[in-house]
Design brief:
By secondary structure, the protein is an alpha/beta fold. It has helices at 15-27, 38-45, 64-73, 89-97, 110-144, 152-164, 181-190, 212-217, 234-237, 253-265, 291-297, 302-308, 324-340, 349-357, 363-378, 385-388, 402-420, 425-432, 436-446, and strands at residues 7-11, 31-35, 52-56, 79-84, 102-105, 171-174, 199-203, 242-246, 267-268, 277-278, 282-287, 311-314. The strands form 3 sheets. It has a 5-stranded parallel sheet with strand order 2-1-3-4-5, sandwiched between helices.
């Protein structure tokens, strides 16, 4: 028996054959549609092809073989099973060479037609699934150049983006300041069917409350003092594309109601106009705030939250991404090396420990700035990662006591281990090769905590 969701289009100029096959397939759980000719079948198929087509070969106007050729020319992938009262070996060979899945002669057993259609539909669905997987892998490869990282969190983020990019639903991106929320929003847009249209970013925190409606929805000439000409709002500019509402959590409460009305109605009325116009823009929002806490505090509308968070993506902070920190820093060094025309310096073991031990409150944005400072110093054959991080001179500087250098290095190694090891404090001590009590003493000495 076929699964409930399989669909078939039955094409035959004989009404009795169409009705009999349709009734048989429906009894097996298929969704069925019928057509009296090849021309009618093409009109029904495009743009929603079924899982399988069962078609007669000889029909007035367009044969079953010609119908199959038309499908191929239009790049419509669907499995075809042919039936004919006039079948012979040459016709069957021609049909199979043309890519027909199966060829059945009349008078036929309906059960045999059903079995052939089931195999054809399952084969076609498997082919489509493989094509989607290949396309998804291609998108993942492209994402790797934009959202760099080999940590488990970044692999999952890239997979999630590849899977939802073509789903035309609202997305809420959560992440700390500087973690790359706009990069994610742009990736969602660039990998969607809207990629050829506009991507419009708006920082909600930077829009003056008195200009919110004009900025978002546009205005007519003379709508308010200073409106010497009509102006488009962000929604109109993003029509057909994607609108990125950054820091949506900073949107004033009364403006949230106006934004919600537009998102629910799918239409915008410019300031000064009472005539709403339909708008088709995918909304991608982002925030570094805890919106659920804001809802509890009464500063963010729960209905707006549900409207913008159909799908939620969470960006990990840089400090939780382990060796991605060194990978990203190396990438940024190479980038700024090209900008300033100098070779990037090699990272020492101490540099790596310092990078892994740093908390990175500014996330990737801060890392980029630190890498640029390091390259600016490298132009004059000076500087260090420590200095670029703002931690003073390097431990190996002349005049420093050996004890001071050792303690500075030891603190960096401890900090790096705390940031890197995801298990318990016993796991940290085990990795460092010291007793748990010794670890506690050293953490207290250097003022470090998990």
């Amino acid at each position: 028996m076929a699964e409930q969701h399989l669909s078939v289009l039955i094409v035959d100029d004989d009404r009795e054959v169409r009705e009999a096959l349709s009734e048989f397939f429906e009894g097996a759980g298929w969704r069925t549609a019928t057509a009296r000719s090849g021309q009618e079948a093409l009109a029904r198929i495009d743009p929603d092809p079924p899982d399988a087509i069962v078609t007669d070969v000889r029909m007035p106007g367009m044969s079953g073989l010609e119908l199959h050729r038309q499908l191929k020319e239009r790049d419509i992938e669907v499995a075809v099973v042919m039936i004919s009262a006039h079948g012979d070996i040459p016709m069957a060979i021609e049909a199979m060479r043309a890519g027909i899945y199966d060829f059945i002669e009349k008078p036929f057993d309906p059960e045999r037609v059903l079995e052939a259609a089931t195999r054809a539909a399952e084969t076609q669905r498997l082919r489509r699934q493989n094509e989607r997987l290949r396309a998804q892998l291609g998108r993942l490869a492209g994402l790797g150049a934009v959202l760099v990282g080999e940590s488990a969190q970044m692999h999952k983020l890239r997979r999630d983006i590849a899977e939802i990019a073509e789903i035309d639903a609202a997305v809420l991106v959560l992440g700390e300041t500087g973690s790359g929320k706009e990069l994610v929003a742009r990736a969602l847009h660039d990998m969607s069917t809207r990629a050829g249209e506009a991507f419009v970013p708006v920082n909600c925190a930077a829009v003056p409350e008195g200009l919110f409606e004009s900025t978002m929805f546009g205005h007519l000439k003379g709508a308010f003092t200073g409106a010497v000409q009509a102006g488009k709002g962000a929604f109109q500019v993003a029509d057909g594309g994607s609108l990125f509402l950054d820091e949506i959590g900073a949107c004033p409460l009364d403006q949230q109601a106006k934004l919600l009305r537009v998102l629910e109605a799918g239409e915008v009325a410019e300031v000064g106009s009472s005539v709403p116009r339909p708008i088709d823009a995918r909304v991608i929002s982002a925030t570094n705030a805890d919106l659920e806490a804001s809802i509890a505090a009464g500063s963010f509308r729960d209905d707006l939250f549900y409207r913008v968070s159909t799908i939620t993506l969470r960006l990990p902070p840089l400090r939780e991404r382990g060796d991605d920190i060194v990978l990203l820093f190396t990438q940024q060094l190479e980038r700024f090396a090209k900008v300033y025309g100098v070779d990037p310096p090699e990272l020492s073991q101490e540099d790596v420990a310092l990078l892994l031990g740093h908390a990175w409150p500014g996330n990737v944005r801060e890392l980029r700035q630190v890498a640029e400072r390091r390259m600016l110093d490298a132009r004059y054959k000076r500087g260090s990662v420590r200095q670029a991080l703002g931690r003073g001179s390097a431990p190996a500087a002349l005049g420093s006591a050996l004890k001071e250098q050792v303690e500075t290095y030891e603190r960096a190694v401890l900090a790096a281990a705390l940031a890197r090891v995801e298990g318990t404090m016993d796991d940290v001590a085990r990795e460092l090769g010291i007793a748990r009590r010794t670890l506690n003493e050293k953490l207290a000495k250097y003022g470090l905590s998990r």
